[in-house]
């Protein structure tokens, strides 16, 4: 990587996605329709140059998740719809499909969870946030049901529709408070933070 990491964990680091190799790798991820964990968008048809000029529009902050030992891009996480006076934002994430899809379907490894924990740490540590929210399709929620409800309180009452490619899918919202993260962060970070 050309730039220094923003935060380093035991297995992964978070980088600002400003270097051309990272942007190209993110573009390749974005072209694959299976890549998103939350905040699904249809794959782009733009060239990498067109996409690089606009892909961060509307984001509050964003990071590339990179494996410490190999230097390979694992995924990308971003926050958006940040409203300072309300103290909240939404987050999105996508991971390399070859790392989360296998013959048995979908799986996450410890590196994905470490990246998510580091990202949540940075958001709560650096901004006056009280709540971090997610919006995800019900199919995504089902795929990640082993851990999303452990981190986020899913709100069945607040439903919406995710529209893409002329179709729509039911979407569920979830939230995590600063207090809930503070209560659980030690159990996550003792495994992932360097020096803890």
Compact summary:
It is built from 7 helices and 11 strands.
CATH architectural group of the domain at 7-129 and 184-192: 3-Layer(aba) Sandwich
CATH H level, superfamily name of the domain at 7-129 and 184-192: Gcn5-related N-acetyltransferase (GNAT)
Alpha-beta classification: alpha+beta
Q: How large is the radius of gyration? A: 16 Å
Biggest β-sheet description:
9 strands, mixed
Structural features, described:
- It is a single chain.
- This protein is an alpha+beta fold and 196 residues long.
- The protein has a domain at 7-129 and 184-192: Gcn5-related N-acetyltransferase (GNAT) (Aminopeptidase).
- The relative contact order is 0.16.
- Strands 1, 2, 3, 4, 5, 6, 9, 10 and 11 form a nine-stranded mixed beta sheet that branches. Strands 7-8 form a two-stranded antiparallel ribbon.
- It contains seven helices and eleven strands.
- The protein is globular.
Name the features.
196 residues; alpha+beta; Aminopeptidase; nine-stranded mixed beta sheet; two-stranded antiparallel sheet; 7 helices; 36% strand; globular
Topology:
Elements lengths: L6 E2 L3 E4 L4 H11 L5 E3 L9 H7 L4 E9 L5 E11 L4 E8 L1 H4 E2 L2 E2 L3 H17 L4 E7 H6 L4 H4 L1 E12 L2 E11 H15 L4
Helix pairs in contact: 4-7
């Amino acid at each position: 990587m050309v730039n220094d990491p923003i935060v380093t964990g035991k297995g992964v680091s978070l980088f600002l996605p400003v270097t051309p190799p990272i942007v190209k790798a993110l573009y390749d991820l974005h072209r694959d329709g299976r890549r998103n964990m939350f905040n699904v968008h249809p794959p782009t048809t733009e060239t990498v140059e067109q996409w690089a000029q606009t892909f961060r529009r509307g984001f509050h902050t964003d990071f590339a998740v990179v494996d410490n030992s190999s230097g390979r891009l694992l995924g990308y996480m971003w926050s958006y719809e940040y409203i300072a006076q309300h103290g909240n934002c939404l987050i999105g994430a996508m991971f390399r499909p070859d790392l989360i899809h296998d013959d048995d379907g979908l799986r996450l490894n410890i590196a994905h969870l470490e990246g998510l924990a580091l990202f949540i740490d940075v958001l709560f540590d650096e901004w006056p946030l009280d709540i971090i929210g997610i919006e995800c399709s019900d199919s995504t929620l089902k795929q990640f049901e082993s851990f999303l409800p452990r981190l986020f309180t899913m709100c069945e009452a607040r439903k919406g529709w995710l529209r893409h490619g002329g179709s729509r899918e039911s979407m569920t919202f979830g939230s995590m408070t600063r207090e809930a993260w503070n209560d659980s962060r030690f159990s996550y970070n003792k495994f992932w933070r360097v020096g803890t």
